[in-house]
Amino acid sequence: MKLYYTPGACSLAGHIVAAEGKLALELEKVDLKSHTTETGADYYQVNPKGYVPALRLDDGALLTENGAILPFLGDKAGSMPEGIDRYHALEWIAFINSEIHKSFGPLFQGGDGEAAAKAKEKIRGRLKLVEEKLSGEYLMGGSFTPPDAYLFVMLRWCEKFGIDLSGLAGLADFRKLMFARVGVAKALKEEGL
Hints:
Shape: globular
Radius of gyration: 16 Å
Distance between the termini: 22 Å
CATH architecture of the largest domain: Up-down Bundle
CATH topology of the largest domain: Glutathione S-transferase Yfyf (Class Pi), Chain A, domain 2
Order of helices and strands: EHEEHEEHHHHHHH
Helix content: 40-55%
Number of domains: 2
Structural class: alpha+beta
Number of strands: 5
Number of helices: 9
CATH class of the largest domain: Mainly Alpha
Largest sheet: 5 strands, mixed
């Protein structure tokens, strides 16, 4: 499998899930400004959407979007829950994607002033809800699952954009726990972070 990624982007979540599961993963870095890969390929030819992540499967098929890639890699890695817990994990991935990830848009577009302040307020509010719902060390309790990788990336972005997470001790503990994981360290190192 080949993961098309940009260092520190949301593609890091899939990279972490694969690293945690010791999955063999070829990496190809994408420059999102020029839409070219590190081998010089036109990234739009890989993924017409033009953004990461994209996962080229061994049979040549392509998956895009964290909502598909994270469960797929989690299934391969053995970290995706079964039964009703599977649907709760999918629920977390969907929430992180639509309510947290999307809210960073104005910040990545260089917005400042009122737009940036509103985005930061919304993100903090959504993360406060996550804090209230943490059911243990991880989102799904005592074990790492794919939504944990996605949440970790969002918390890294909060640091990047100076979003105040004071008073959210559960998220601070979660972040420390994630930094201590071998797969997280491996993915960060491979992306040069």
